[in-house]
C-alpha cells in the first residue's frame, strides 16, 4: 500500500467506529489495489510514475473520503430529522414570539425603573440588544433539545419500522392520534403553563429577576392593590384555564370553544387595561420615576399585542383546520 | 428536453438506480464476489454503479443478513468475498418476482397510454 492510499484510507476510517475500522480499511485497500492493477493490466507502461498516476485516478474516482466515510457510517446525517422538524417549527413559532415579547417588556420596565432620566436611544439599544440575545439563546436551546431528542430516538420512524415485525401490522396498530389533535393538546398544555405562570405573578418577588434592590425584594405588584382586583384577575385566569382544559380533554378546537376563549381573552385584556390605567398596579417603588406613565402605557400595549396575536393565531389555525 | 426536465430526469434516474443496484448486487452475489469483481460484473451487465456507493452498500446488506463475507488470503492480494445467505436468496427471489410483475405492469400501462 502506497503512502497516498494509506492517507486516503485513514481519512475514510478515522470518523468511523473504532471496531469497524480495521475491516473497512482492509476492504478499501484491497479494492483500491484491485482497481489500480486492473487498469495497469490494460497498460503496457508499468513505471512507478505511471502507477502513481493511475493510483491518483482511482482515488479520485472513489471521491471525497469524507463522503465515502458517510456512506459507511449508518448514523443519521442530520441534526433534526423529518420526524422532529414539525415540532421544531412549532416550538419556534410559539416560544420565540413569547420570549421576544417577554424580553422586550422586562427590559423596558427594568430600564425605566432603574434609570431616572432615560433616553429613547438608550432604551431602544438596551432592549434590542437583550432581546436579540434572549431570542438567540431560546433558538439555541430549542434546537439542541429537539436535536438531541431526535438523535436519541434514532431517526424515529425508521427505527420504529425496524422494531416492528414485518407482516404483523394490523389495523389495531394504527396510530389514531392525528397530528391535529396532538397539536391542540400541546398548545392547550402550553397555555395552561402560561396561565399558571401568570397566576403566580402577584407572588413573585423582584429578587427572582435580580432587581430586588428596587423595592427591597417585595413583589412586582402594588401591595395596596384592592383584593377585588386580584380576585378578578384570578377569576379571568380560571376562565382561561377552563377553556384550555376543555381543549386539552376534547383534543378539539370547536368554533364555540374558540369563540369563548377569544371573548375571555379580550375581557381579560379590558380588565387589565382598566386596572393599569386607573391605579398603580405595579409596586410603587418600581414606578416612582418620571417614566411611570410610559411604563403603564407600554404594559397596556404589550397586553393588547399578545391578545391580538393570540386571536389572529387562533383564527388562522381554525381556518386551516376547516380546509 | 428543457433544463428543468433534465434535472428532474437525473433525480428520478438516481432514485430508480438506487433500488436497482441493491437488487442487482443480490442477484450477482449468488456467486461469490469481491468488491471490484462485483463492480465490473454490474458495469458489464449495463448497470452503472459508483464504487463509493457499492462498497458501503455491501456492508449494509451484510448487516441485514442478506450477504455473508469471508476474507480470502490465499491469493496474491487478500480479498473479501461476499455471498448470498439463505435469507438473501429468498429476498432476491422475491425481488425478482416483483421486478417481473413491475415490468409487465409498466409495459401494459405504456401500451394502454400509447395513442
Automatic annotation (TrEMBL), chain A:
The chain crosses the membrane at residues 94-115, 127-148, 190-211, 231-249, 256-277, 297-318. It comes from the Bacteria. Pfam families: HAAS. Keywords: Membrane, Transmembrane, Transmembrane helix. This is Uncharacterized protein. It comes from Brevibacterium linens ATCC 9172.
UniProtKB/TrEMBL annotation, chain B:
Signal peptide: none annotated. Residues 29-92 form the Transcription regulator PadR N-terminal domain. It holds the Pfam family PadR. This is Transcriptional regulator, PadR family. It comes from Brevibacterium linens ATCC 9172.
